Amino acid sequence: MIRSDKSVSGVAFSLDTETGFKDVIMIDAAYGLGESIVQGIVNPDEYYVFKTTLAQGYKPIIKKQLGDKKVKMIYSQSKAHPVKKIAVLKKDQERFALTDAEILALAKMVHTIDTYYSKRNKRWMPMDVEWAKDGIDGKIYIVQARPETIHGNEKRCVYATYALSKKTSSDDILTTGLSIGKKIVSGIARVVKSAKDIEKVAPGE
């Protein structure tokens, strides 16, 4: 069992969850069990790492925001209530829960997971990751990884152009008008002389 109750834990995303910006890794960290962040009972530290230069070997921590981290969740001796909340020491509240080296190491893990699942699914797949640092061996572990569902399922804006496969002459043009978009379709053209005939238009015409 990972003893994050004696250390730090949190969540990480391979994108900015507010804007959907895909080139950053966002990490939240707080003392104790990660459930305190999931339940929203603690204001965690927040770190942003830039993916592109991270992959190039740099140390691109672009933002560090200190959370108050006033309480932490730890294991209790009660079988009825296996966890409990306790106050965090003032000196620990006023310092970052992770070192820069730990932030970068965790960001690399998240980036690796993002890259693997995106390649496996043949499309960008941002990840929602839960992590924990063991207070005994000092190592950071990934405890869960799943696709981020809000921005990950959005359809990306695509610019597409269309052209006829063969050349046409002016004699081939039957009519012209003001277009509201650019696309090519084919099918049957039915002449509708009045609104009364609109019911005669079949699907695909």
Give a verbal description of the structure.
This protein has helices spanning 35-38, 51-55, 90-93, 100-121; strands spanning 8-13, 24-31, 45-50, 61-65, 71-75, 83-87, 127-133, 140-147. The longest helix has 22 residues, at 100-121. The chain contains four helices and eight strands; from the N terminus they run ββαβαβββααββ. The chain starts with 7 loop residues before the first strand and ends in a 58-residue tail after the last strand. A hairpin with a 6-residue loop joins strand 7 (127-133) and strand 8. It has a single domain, classed as ATP-grasp fold, B domain (D-amino Acid Aminotransferase, Chain A, domain 1, 2-Layer Sandwich), CATH 3.30.470. The chain is an alpha+beta fold and 205 residues long.
Q: Quick one: CATH class?
A: Alpha Beta
CATH topology value: D-amino Acid Aminotransferase, Chain A, domain 1
Enumerate the strands of the largest sheet in spatial order, edge to edge or round the barrel. Answer: 4-3-2-1-7-8
What class, by secondary structure content?
alpha+beta
Q: Uncertain runs with pLDDT below 50, 5 residues or more?
A: none
Major β-sheet, in short?
6 strands, antiparallel
Q: Count helical runs.
A: 4
- Proportion of residues in extended strands: 15-25%
Portion of residues in helices? 10-25%
